[in-house]
User: Fold these one by one.
Assistant:
Number 1:
Amino acid sequence: MVPDGLPCGCGSRGCWEQYASGRALRRYGRERAAADPVLGKRLLELNEGVADTITGSQITQAAEEGDPLALAVYDELADWLGRGLADLASLFDPGVFVLGGGVSDSGALLLDPVAKAFEKYLIGGVHRPRADVVLATLGSSAGIVGAGDLARQH
Ligand SMILES: [Zn+2]
């Protein structure tokens, strides 16, 4: 997604996962709260004044309370998610995107801005069928339940 971007666990740089994941959500929250403690007041309050260890659920709680910094963090994450989904849609034109993993536990807080970003970045959006963007029914457990199911079949 980002030439010479952040290093990734896969050995490459600038991978989507570094910008649109639960880990990215925490990083955005920690960086923004540290950079602007006034705007980050609520997040810092929730984590006893420490920016470095702010958790995803603290960001979610603050966003649900309407905290501007936490909502901006969600918007940044959603923008990257929507951008990547638009790229995938321009290649594959799927009927639906199902978001799983840790970020999917955020519900509408994530889904609404992701859908907006997806539309913003989708090339030729008025001429192609619009994919639905939904959350995985099993949320952050989808991967482990799938792995368990696969093991059961063998
Ligand atoms: Zn990677």
Number 2:
Amino acid sequence: MKKIKAVFLDRDGTIIYEKPGTYIADIKDLKFYKNTITALTQLNKAGFKLFIVSNQSGIGRGYFTKKHVENFNKQMTNNLKPAKIEELAYCPHSPSQKCECRKPKTMLGKTIIKKYNIDVENSYMIGDKKSDIDFGLNLNLTPILVKTANGKHQIKKYGSKIKAVKVAGLKQAVLVIKRGMKK
Ligand SMILES: [Mg+2]
Ligand SMILES: [Zn+2]
């Protein structure tokens, strides 16, 4: 069976604009970074399937409901066209619920990897937080930290504990991935 190459992506602060420390569930706050659609389309063209894995603790904290998140995600994946998101998975829990699906825990990623027969050795995880990077490492994906949203502050806070390639944004992340393909 053919193995699939994938790029896993964080949502808030990576694909869409996030003001650090805020929660996004209202369509009016749906704003892509300048290079998002181009970058994701390029990844599709390079043969990667795209998956979004997102922590949405705003649900567990009672700020909004699953319905809000699902409506938002539907609109977002639609607006991302021509880039194609294969699947979007999210954790609805707050940290205090100690679930198994909140990044850096791997349950959501494991399910997708199994379902799509993903070749982790040639796949990536892109995000703006250490938890995204650790999620990637826990699944043997190559992690890339973007400096958008929380990215810069996370580097300041954790330094070399962030074991990832660090880039300005999605556009540069795509360059890193394309360079990796030539090896
Ligand atoms: Mg994020
Ligand atoms: Zn969870």
